[in-house]
Amino acid sequence: MPHSNILVAVSGGMDSVLLTHLLKAAGYNFGIAHCNFGLRGDESLADQQFCNKLAQQFNVSFHTINFATREYAADNKLSIQMAARELRYVWFEQIRQQHGYHAIALGHHQNDTIETILLNLTRGTGIAGLHGILPLNGVLARPLLFLSRDEIAEIVKLEEIDYVEDSSNASTKYARNKLRHEVIPKLKLLNPNLENTFEKNLRHFRELEQLLELTVTELKLNLFDYQDDGVHLPLEKVRKLQPLHLLLFRLLQEYGFSEAVTDDLITALDKHPGRVFESRGHRLVLDREQLVIVKKENKDIEPVNITMEDKRLYFGDYALTILHDDSPLIIRDNPLAVAIDAQLLIYPLTMRSWQQSDFFYPLGKRTRKKLSDFFINEKVAVHKKAQIPLLINGNGDIMWIAGYRPDERYKVSNNTKKVAIFELFKIA
Asked: Which of 52, 119, 140, 426 has the fewest CB atoms within 10 Å distance of its CB?
C-alpha cells in the first residue's frame, strides 16, 4: 500500500533499480539499503556510490554497510554466496526494525525463481523446494516476480534508466550463474516459453504444498496426544499413513527429525521396539504400541566472551550481532534487542546463562532484584531459565536479560554519546 514505509534492497543492478523507480512512480514511501560485500574492490565501491546517488535523486534515506565477507565465510565455514546472503538478510531486518519500515522489498524476478527451483532439484528437495521464491514471505516482498529478466531489460532500456552491471554476473564460477548462462539457455531451446511454463508449474506446486499442510494439520489432531512427558503417537495409526514416508517425515519435521531418521524409523517400526532416535532438541522413543517424542534435557551453554571488535557471535540457539552507532538509539518493541550506553562497557563482555546468586537492577527501578525472584514474577518455567542469555559487563554487572529486561544502570540517557546495539536471532 502506498502509505507503507518500505526498505528497498538495492544492489545497483537493473532489477533492484527498476523496482526503486516503480515504487517511486507509485507513490510509496521508502528508503534504500545497500550492502558492500567488499568482493570486487573499486567496483563494489562504485556500486555503493551509485546507490547513494540514487537515494539522493529520490530524496530518500540511504542505509549502507561494508562487510568483510570473505573473513565471515571462512570463520563460519560458509560459501561466499551463503555468507553474503546471511549477512545481508540479518542486516536488512536490523535496519527495518530500527527505522520502522513495514517491509523489505527485493528485486527478484521470474528467472530467479527458475534458477532457485533448478538449484533445489540439483541439491535435493522436498515439495517446499519446488514452490520457488514466494512473492510475500513474512516481511520480505518481491514485487517483480511477474516479470522475466528480458522484460525487465526491455523496460529499463525503454525508460533509459541508469544502473550498474556486476561483472561477477558474467562468471560461471557460482552454481546459480552456471545455470543462468549454460543450462537455462539450452532448456529454452527446448521450450522458448520456459518462464511461462514454470509460472504455471509453480502454481500447481504451491497448491500441492498447501494441500499437504492441510493434511498434516488434520493428522496432528488425530494422531498427537500431548502428555506431560511428551507427545505420543499410536503405532497402529502411524502404520496406516499413506504415503508413509512423506506424511511421517512432515509430522516429525517440526521436532527437528531428518528424512534419514524417518527412513530408519520406518525400517524399525515392526522390528526394534525400544530404539531411540535423536534430533538436535528431541528424542523419539519407539515403544511397543506408540512413538513418544520427548524434549532433551537442557545442557549448560558455554559462556561466550565478547571483544570490542566482535560483530557476530553464537550462544546456544542464538546468533548475537553487535552494532555500534553514534546516535542515542533506544530499542523498542523488540525484546531480543537492546541499546546500551557504550561508554559504560568494560571489555571483554560475556554472554552466559543465569547463576543462582545473580541479581540486577530492572529498568525503571533503583533497587536490585535477584534473578531467581525476577523469573518467578515473570512466570518463567524452570526448564527455560538456563536457556535465557544474559549480557554481562566486564565488571560482572548484568546489563541485559535477553527477551525480558535491560538493567537500569546501563540504559541510554540524555548524556549518552554512543550506543552499542546487541541483537539476538533464533537459529534453531
From this structure: 426
What burial letters (b/e) apply to 154-170, b meaning 16+ CB within 10 Å? eebeeeeeebbebeeee
- Rg (C-alpha) for the chain, rounded Å, is 25
State the pLDDT at residue 383: 46
Residue 321 CA to residue 313 CA, distance in Å, equals: 7
pLDDT at 298 over 60: no
3-state SS assignment for residue 159: coil
The Cα 206–Cα 128 span in angstroms is 8
Grid cell digits, residue 236: 497402529
Specify the amino acid at residue 16: S
- 10 Å Cβ neighbour count for 403? 18
Strand ranges for 207-288 from DSSP E: 225-227, 230-234, 276-278, 282-286
Q: How far apart are CA 227 and CA 239, in angstroms?
A: 21
- pLDDT of 130-167, one tens digit each? 666 778 889 999 999 899 888 999 999 999 999 998 76
The answer to whether the CB of 141 falls within 8 A of the CB of 102 is: no
Closest to 265 in 3D by CA, of 281, 254, 247:
247
Residue the block writes with cell 539457455 = 185
Q: How far is CA 130 from CA 102, 104, 174, 203, 351, in A?
A: 28, 23, 21, 10, 40
- For residues 392 and 380, give the distance between their C-alpha atoms in angstroms, rounded to a whole number: 20
The set of cell numbers assigned to 165 is: 552491471
Report which of 87, 26, 34, 89 is spatially closest to residue 56, judged by C-alpha positions. 34
* pTM for the whole structure: 0.53
- pLDDT for res 14: 94
